[in-house]
Amino acid sequence: MGFEKFLFYVFALILIFAAVRVITVRNSVHAALFLVLAFFTSAALWLLIEAEFLAITLVLVYVGAVMVLFLFVVMMLDLNVDPVREGFIKYLPVGAAVALLIVIEMGLVVGSSYFATDQYSLVARAADYSNTKELGSVLYTFYVYPFEIASVILLVAIVAAISLTMRRREGVKAQDPGRQVRASRDDRVRLVHLAPEKKK
Amino acid sequence: MNFVAPDFMPVLPELLVLTMACLVLVIDVFLEQRQRHITYGLAQLTLVGAALLTLVTYAQAPVTTMFGHYIKDAMGDLLKLFIYLATAVVFLYSRDYLKQRDLFKGEYYVLGLFGVLGMMIMVSAHSLLSVYLGLELLSLSLYALVVTDRDSPVASEAAMKYFVLGSLASGMLLYGISMIYGATGSVDLQVVADAVAVQGKDNLVLVFGLVFLVVGLSFKLGAVPFHMWLPDVYQGAPTSVTLYIGSAPKLAAFALVMRILVEGLGALQDDWHQMLIILSALSIALGNLAALMQSNIKRMLAYSTISHVGFLLLGILSGTPEGYAAAMFYTIVYVLMAVGAFGVIIMLSRAGFEAENIDDFKGLNDRSPWLAFLMMMIMMSMAGVPFLVGFYAKWVVLQAIINVGLVWLALLGVLFSVIGAFYYLRVIKCMYFDKPEQSGEPITLSMDTEIAISANGLLVVVLGLYPTALMDVVRSGLLN
Fold it and tell me: Which residues pair with B242 in a beta bridge?
């Protein structure tokens, strides 16, 4: 248990450091990379509590797909964040005071003693125990209703994104493969009957 | 593992709306612009079909299905019927407006239907998970609807504000939900309610989570001090979308508060009672005072919405079945009046002209006496003039809180309603006594729109004379 606890604290510290850097670092590419680090360490934390499937999904989906896309966007847009930060120093004391107050209040109220943590202690599982199967069997049965709603939300997100960005512009020179395939010889070749020229 | 397939019968209306929304999405792609009325017809047909299904399967006793994520009870079915009705009227009123502005596109109806689905899920949610997902589905549709007019900078700004503040509210709500889940170990509202009843206020985490939940709910309702997004969104969005946002979602928001606070956390009533007192007192005061100073009528109605939300919360905070019935009655009546008021605004707008300012109502009596009369009835009802339905709605709410001994709060509500009457009466004065700035041509409406707005305005009068008809329906919905 000792070594696991040590690992937990190492990863937790790296996670907090990375999360803080995401919002404090000036360069937005660096911020995105710190976010990758944050995802990676949280995946490691999940591995520690034997949630292997979720940990791997986090790395594959968020680090592998979402963040790479994010980096592309950040690099292409060439965002200038300096104007956004103009009021930062001005509002820092108020913001910091409020944040500190909330942290203290939460510390007073939300101790682990109030949560029924003893009910949810880790259950030792055999080595061939499949996390994925277990998740899948509840996701598609007892949670099928929320699961389906989540998929509808994604559908709405797609519809919204397309309706916001797609414009039909007039006069765009684009190929129409259907018309290209349907083209027959008559459309392309015209036989011209030329009377032979006589030599004078 | 034992798995028995859940009973799908109660969920039929939701399944129908979902299927039809997807169908409309696909069919719309193959339609020419001049055939777009088919999309409109299909959307209306969906609402009629869902209403029929809900009526046929109307709940006699509460039934939970989908493993506790879904409940079908009379309150839910009743609210759903009003949601279909409000949305159908919204679609009808906005049809000509959208056509004139080149916004008559399939997305408006597809997103509108998905919004209706989100509301239905919220209304019959029986777990914190489905409450949240339904709310997100509705919100996401609304964000996209606000910015349907992509080239309008005001609309983009409004959508951006709505999106950022809405996400913040969702974060608050989720944080509260996670606290409740951590303390009770379940998302099922029944299990939560039982666990809360046992632990009660000994568990500080529950109260802590409750604070976040109330903050999140107030954001979504638009109660002061979490109202900042509401005037900007109402003003910035195209009037057709303002009409949509201002109507049916209020019914869903009422259901949301009922499900979470009353059904889930009823045992913590002493705590949320105090929070809601502050929220409602501030909403009634600030909403009415800020509305006095507006010259834009959409913004004015937004502040008036805030004050009406305050009244709605008054009914809920009383914590009695009578109070809940009063709040539900108030919400339904408010939606009726809001649809009418925004409907008249939408009908005054023509191609290339937005009737947005109160000045645009000047001399409406000369241009269209009937429309001016309907608007006068709606405005007077909103102000709470006796013998109109708005008066009775305020009356039952105030009665409910006086019965629990909060006389000072009732006095505050009456006082600010009297102050608020000024800005409603100003609209009436504009319509009847002021000369128009430019001579407007008479207003021509299509037949179905004219019938609907007449029915809408007259209903305010008729229900004012026979309020018990609606009140009995509401009571029967809440008490079974």
Answer: none
The structure tokens 């869903």 sit at B252
pLDDT value of position B374: 93
Q: What is the mean pLDDT of residues B130-154?
A: 92
pLDDT of B323 strictly over 90:
yes
Q: Is A121 on the interface with B (CB under 8 A)?
A: no
Q: In this prediction, what percent of chain B has a pLDDT beyond 90?
A: 72
Better-predicted residue by pLDDT, B214 or A25: B214
Q: Are B357 and B424 in contact (CB under 8 A)?
A: no
- What token pair was written down for A105? 């209040």
Say whether residue B29 is in contact with chain A using an 8 A CB cutoff: no
Residues of B in contact with A110 (CB under 8 A): 179, 204-205, 208
pLDDT tens for B160-171 read: 999 999 999 999
**Domain spans in chain B, listed from the N-terminal domain onward:** 9-479
Please tell me whether the interface predicted TM-score (ipTM) of this complex is above 0.95: no
Residue B111 to residue A116, Cβ atoms within 8 A: no
Which residues are within 8 A (CB) of A9 and not within 5 positions of it... i.e. 6 or more apart? none
B-chain residues near A137 (CB < 8 A)? 1
What pLDDT score does A119 carry?
Answer: 64
Supply the DSSP symbol for A50: T
| Paired tokens of B36 | 């777009």
- Among positive and negative, which fits the CA dihedral A131, A136, A142, A143? positive
Q: Is the dihedral of CA B458, B459, B460, B465 positive or negative?
A: positive
> Best interface-test mutation with A: which of B2, B8, B65, B66 has the largest number of A CBs within 10 A?
B66
Going from the C-alpha of B306 to that of each of A10, B285, B300, B360, B406, the distances in angstroms are 49, 9, 10, 23, 21
* CB pair distance less than 8 Å for B203 and A157: no
Cβ contact B179–A150 (<8 Å): no
